[in-house]
Amino acid sequence: MREKLQTDFERLLASYLHDPKEENLYGVQQLNKWIMDQKIPPDEVLNHYIETLKKLIPDLHSDVKTSFDLLLEVMVGYGVQYRVDKNIATRHQELEDEIEVAVHLQRTLLPESPPPLEGVDLGVASYASKTMSGDYYNFVQYGDGILGIAIADIIGKGIPAALCMSMIKYSMDDMDHHQPEPSEILQELNTVVERNILPNMFITMVYGVYDSLNHSFRYATAGHEPGFIYRADTGQFEDMDTQGLVLGVTSHVEYPEFQLHLAEGDVIILLTDGVTETRFDGEFIERADFCELAKKYLHLPAREIAEKVYKRIYELSGYQMLDDQTIIVIKRVGKNKL
Amino acid sequence: MNITIREHSEREHTIDLTVFGEVDVYTAPQLREKLLTLCQGGSNIHLDLAGVDYIDSTGLGVLIGAYKAQKSSGGKLIISGMNSRLTRLFRITGLQEIMEFGPDNQEDGKS
């Protein structure tokens, strides 16, 4: 390998010294690529160059020869840093590859799309501010037209939040789902989270059960940003009730339940605080402004409402997404209007 | 954005901390470090947030961590000076029910 460097330098240097034209430098680009591929450090490259030069010009002035020592010394230092940087770059690439696998795994924790529910149109938009999201949502099918709907925000972002998310997902999967009681589900999750997370971590969550036979939504909240209910008869949004401690602070917490009844055209919007803490020109979006914005899209299918609201907020924020954002839309429609 | 943390200890068994700025993902580590050291001392901590406009979830996590540390060591964490936005945050998260607060917190804006 080193012989190639020596012979290439001899050939290139001889032709350039004989005729210093730009086209005689083209061969250097090829050699440069080969040097990079072989990961030869800069001090070694310079050393070969000096040896070649001494061979081609035997009567090189002794001061020039001596001056190479100085240049070599500089390049040795540069070479050390070059190797450090190479190692960092390699490690960085390895981490990127690992994160890519983790992102893929995280996607498997989230449902691809909501399951169908008679007389209800469901839609989700969920976007991560970084590679991995701290927002979680889930749909649990209990049969007989009953669907569990969960939305959660795990403090922090990235890998720690993703690990926490898997804990929530598998705890929910392990639960006995014959009696869907939102308050009990949050209590159980709180016990798991409180035992297993770092002192300064916590999770906020809403767990609700939609019964499509009587179109009721029974839910409990754990410190989560309140959702909205749009009433078609008044044309107004109302805040959903919220009361309950975030998950993971203390054991034995009670989570009161609330219930909503939906008439045709009514829409529930659940969201994470990444949406409501978006800033426009430095000011937080007001909940009233959010409602005005959302109203423009309520005639659309649920998935489109969620996407359009997300996109509009993203536009208004100047395309700055500081936190993960998730919007779930639950729209009561007529039986044949899905 | 930076935060400033001022510490006074003129009262017996109580350390007063005054915070200025926004407590977010970038500045929360500063507050966490300060509180972590103080929580090991066994004194009550009085946290004045009158100079704080906004606390994000990372900042809230720091306060929860301090609350837990104080609870296990027998000390108190007392929070005061909250603006209406912060009061709302503590109500929504349910922390209002379990943490201790001074008298000078603004009313919840209910927004």
UniProtKB/TrEMBL annotation, chain A:
SUPFAM superfamilies: KaiA/RbsU domain, PP2C-like. Residues 121-332 form the PPM-type phosphatase domain. Pfam families: RsbU_N, SpoIIE. One of its GO terms (molecular function) is phosphatase activity. It comes from the Bacteria. The keyword RNA-binding does not apply. Gene3D superfamilies: KaiA/RbsU domain (1.10.1240.30), PPM-type phosphatase domain (3.60.40.10). The keyword Hydrolase applies. Keywords: Hydrolase. This is Sigma-B regulation protein RsbU (Phosphoserine phosphatase). It comes from Baia soyae. The lineage of its organism: Bacteria, Bacillati, Bacillota, Bacilli, Bacillales.
From TrEMBL, chain B:
The keyword Repressor does not apply. Belongs to the anti-sigma-factor antagonist family. Keywords: Phosphoprotein. One of its GO terms (molecular function) is anti-sigma factor antagonist activity. InterPro entries: Anti-sigma_ant, STAS_dom, STAS_dom_sf. Residues 17-111 form the STAS domain. Pfam families: STAS. This is Anti-sigma factor antagonist. Gene3D superfamilies: STAS domain (3.30.750.24). It comes from Baia soyae. Positive regulator of sigma-B activity. Non-phosphorylated RsbV binds to RsbW, preventing its association with sigma-B. When phosphorylated, releases RsbW, which is then free to complex with and inactivate sigma-B. The keyword Phosphoprotein applies.
